[in-house]
Fold this sequence. Notes:
Elements: H1 2-52, H2 59-129
Helix pairs in contact: 1-2
Amino acid sequence: MDAERYYAAVKRYAELEVEAAAGFAAVRETSESVRFERSNLLELKQTIAKVRSGAPMRASALDRLHESRRMALLKLEEKESEIRLEVLQKAVEVHTEESQRRGRLRDQAKPLIDRARAEHTAVMGDAANE
């Protein structure tokens, strides 16, 4: 019986490791996307700096550049928010599963503990009567 529970626990642990690895891969992929967006943002900042340094450019082109920069910032913030949300959701999921597992183990152990207490009380009662 104990060997079966141990095997089941080891199997579930391995499953959680696989799920966590998949979650980390998704986070890594999103992080790479965020890095790409940041490099685009840096490029936009450099172009704006060139414009400010005196390079001739029409006002509409400068407005488009600022709008492009603003959109890139919004996309970057959105991606970072998505990453945080995914990590928090995974943490809540793992915490919930662990809490449920501990509750099941506690429920399984309760009859054993009660029986051990009863046996201990009986032994102590017998020892006191002698």
